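Narrative of activities, Objective 1.

The group set out to show that a structural description can be obtained from nothing but a protein's sequence at a throughput compatible with the screening campaign. Below is one input-output pair from the validation batch, recorded exactly as produced.
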Amino acid sequence: MEAQARLFAQEQALPSCPPQEQQATLTPLTPFPHTAGPYYHHQQQHSWPQANTHSFSRLARKEHDLTKRELELQRREHVLTMSDQMKRVKNWPRCRPILYHDIDVEIPDSSKGLIKMAYATWCLTAGGFCLNWLVICIMLIANFATVDLMDWHLATFATGTGIPLSFRMWYHRMYKRARDGQKLDSVGLVIHMSFGVAWAIWTVLSIPNYGDMGAGLFPLLKAFADDNTTLGLACFLNMVIWTLSAVFILCLLKGVRNMGTRQEAGVGVHYRSGRSAMNQLRFSFLSSSFFNRPSAPVADENQPPPQPHGGYSSVVPPVHNAGPAPYGNG
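Output recorded for this entry:
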């Protein structure tokens, strides 16, 4: 009994062996004195993924995806706009519809007032062309001294071309740019509107030998000098209409300029807000926990790796003595 108790005490004094699943992970001792085991060599060659090498490429991919998505949305909006325009029925002019024209439907609220004023100005200008041609006809029939057949032909040509050209060159151009959300203060639009102002001034003056095709100031003075009150009043009415047309076009030019300034300011705000958002995205991405990881520890051949939880190391440190490794408590 004493011998069995002594053997039991010796067995209890021996170090306990790990479980079976932990025994499978143990690495046998290396017989070489100055070399590490295969698992230690494998851990020494292990390298952590370098995060900085992929950060900007990921950000560039995000920017590319956002740009591609924005272009796709613009394309879809354009397709929807074209389909809506194809479905709309032509309604202008009422006598012979040739196009669809509806300020309340197509023009955004920010430009609606300006476009309505432009439409009223164009209608006033078209009325001025018609009234001027009518007064020239009356002068020709009444054998007025300053008007001949050539002046009537020139007035007819100016009326026949001035009405559609004024509609096409500055009013409809302004209408389309406001409908599509483009800048209104384009160079072509300003040039055509300036030409409309110059033509209105030319018609109001009607300088003899150069502007006899217009019923303006000098024909008015000639009519009152000849006691022709009817022609004088007609010339006065024509002058009032063309003066108002010139004033309204100048007001439109100022409104177009102010609208263009606001649009440029809006584009600048959107651009700055977009850039600030992108910079904020970069900052949040670079300051994330992905870049704040602790660097990988550099393995040293003379230092054993840290032991995992449980006290049993799966990597055996190198042995520097040539003798066999003891087993037990020593």
